[in-house]
Amino acid sequence: MKIIGIGKNYVNDKSEIAGIKTGHQLIFLKAESTLVTNNKDIEFPKITNQLIYEVELVAKIGKQGKDIAESDAASYISEIGIGIDYTAKDVLSASRENKGPWALAKGFDGASPVNGFKPVSNFPDLNDINFSLTINGEEKQSGNTSDMIYNFVEIIAFVSKYMTLEPGDLIFTGTPASGAGQNVKGDHLQASVEGELLLDFKLV
Known about the structure:
The chain is α+β, with helices and mostly antiparallel strands and 204 residues long. The chain is 16% helix and 35% strand. The model has no long low-confidence stretch (mean pLDDT 96).
């Protein structure tokens, strides 16, 4: 099972999309061991002092596919859930100083909590899904998929040019352009899709 992420994929103003959209999507992979499910609390990682949260919708792949056409890509999504793409910013900064990869900064245990997967049929318009994140009762991020630079089908078509998508693969599709920030031990995170609370855990 692969965990695939896409970076820098939302704008605050839809008018920005045309100028940004070059076709070169920013894709990265996360280790399967980053995954945390069933709203389990997460032990604050010892490897970082700068734990950065990003709430994202997560597409689950339902069937195998390679070189998928955009016109067919939606049929490869079986479910949609919500998760947090965590980054150890200090680890990332140290890696970047040596022109290194993102692997350790994105691939530590607990870096991908997800929950609340619903059949894709529950979402009649993939380009109009609302989601949000609150921390300790205060809303920190909110977004709508209409603000994506690359939408679900464009991501799937692009990724499948390079790697075969398999049933159960998860694609983190990007975070709203504003509101990502730093977590501390004890924070309580709650993420919702269309107003329904689906992800609910604490950093302990």
